[in-house]
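# nightly structure sweep
# worker-07 picked up a monomer target from the shared queue
# config: single-sequence mode, recycle default, output format = structure tokens
# input follows
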Amino acid sequence: MTVKDIMTELRTKGSDSIKKIQLKHGVREPLFGVKVEYLKVIEKKIKKDYQLAKDLYATGNADAMYLAGLIADDQKMTKADLQTWVSQAVSQNISEYTVPWVAAEGQHGYELALLWIESPKENVAAAGWATLASLVVLKEDSDLDITNLKSLSARVARDIVKTENRARHAMNGFIIAVGIYVKALTENALATANKIHSDKNFAALKLPNAADYILKIKEKGTLGKKKKTVKC
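# output follows
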């Protein structure tokens, strides 16, 4: 399939009602309003295609960009590719899902995540924290820098109140992921979550209490169960 073929197909599968919902959830124009379930149908036809993924992403169409992340050959994605993608990720679903997924499942996720969280741009910082969250979901604890993850958790507790909205949500998601997927840091993540929750400004943040999510998984007895992929 070519980019032209795919864009034509996406246009025919677009829905005004889906588009309205997506716009309310931070997805930006241009987009057709295609359901993710249909994007997955196209993904199954293509499987992995490094160049096609880059070409689709370059269209700037949010539906095509999401599909690009699903078919990207993550291991072939270069640092330059990922830097381009994160700089163009203005829709929340792209900056907080597509780019982090591809980065985490590739070779440069950790290095770039640490770079991105330092960005003054809200969408880039959010992508960085979301990439870190994806990495702890995927990688065995022995392959993670536990000491630095603990340090990053302390940073979240210190800075989350004064961070911009989308990065703040990604930071909270990072604490949830660490608490659930890194058993050595579960108690630390719970302590961090409780510290954030005790802040007098927490209610105004409109964030879910990370501790509730972690404790729910702890009760199920599935803490530390890693995933093969974060893409969905």
